């Protein structure tokens, strides 16, 4: 599903150049739930932005479903993002004056695809994320956990190839975070949704099939949630 080859990313400020990613090689299978962890500044969010086509690498290649997104022109990447990728962010990024239903359906409006059949799908998603009865409630009147549920439903409304999540539980308390992570797990298991999640939270990472540990722009270690010692590995890594 995702193949990253010898990926590098540099940022320049005046004469100073900073290499954030240093030759990343990574494969993510279809239907896999992967968590990317690492200290601040390790490059994990930069990698997610590159996977989402929000930025382009300095060198290397990114293939998603056999399409090389870093070779695309900006307009092509925009269309690819809209049709093939779903995004969930820490700060929700909802339109505050629109209702739950309107926020979820917004990507369909943008593509001119709000048919009767798709309108039914919006209603099904509202129920799937536990917001039944809140269809007409404005986003700015929802709790943080409810807003993130709306954001997840909006990200899934176009049936994306890959769901990308950047610190999706960062603004939530533990109980609300667990609810959101359980939703990810539900769509992953029931729909075989491919999910790539950046997080700094050991608890959140434990929901994934595989955990990729970043340090200083390189992959330091890859561990499986099935590994009985994964908690120890994570604790040592984050120390």
TrEMBL record:
Gene3D superfamilies: P-loop containing nucleotide triphosphate hydrolases. Residues 2-235 form the ABC transporter domain. Its EC number is 3.6.3.-. Pfam families: ABC_tran. InterPro entries: AAA+_ATPase, ABC_transporter-like_ATP-bd, ABC_transporter-like_CS, MacB-like_ATP-bd, P-loop_NTPase. The keyword Nucleotide-binding applies. Keywords: ATP-binding, Hydrolase, Nucleotide-binding, Transport. GO terms for molecular function: ATP binding; ATP hydrolysis activity; transmembrane transporter activity. SMART domains: AAA (SM00382). GO terms for cellular component: membrane protein complex. It comes from the Bacteria. Belongs to the ABC transporter superfamily. This is Peptide ABC transporter ATP-binding protein.
